[in-house]
Amino acid sequence: MANFLQIALGSSHELEYQILLSKDLRFIDHGIYSELEKEVGEIKAMLISLIKKVRLEP
Asked: CA 16 from chain center: how many Å?
């Protein structure tokens, strides 16, 4: 299960980069970028927490 969560975390890192690229290419404005970046950060934190919990379980 931890492997699938690691894949999800990797995908969230890719999404984070794509959001940044979209802002740099001016496909989205700074306000939308900030909102999306915050949401992705929250999701990444939840995934990291879940990965830690899964690894600690026997």
From this structure: 6
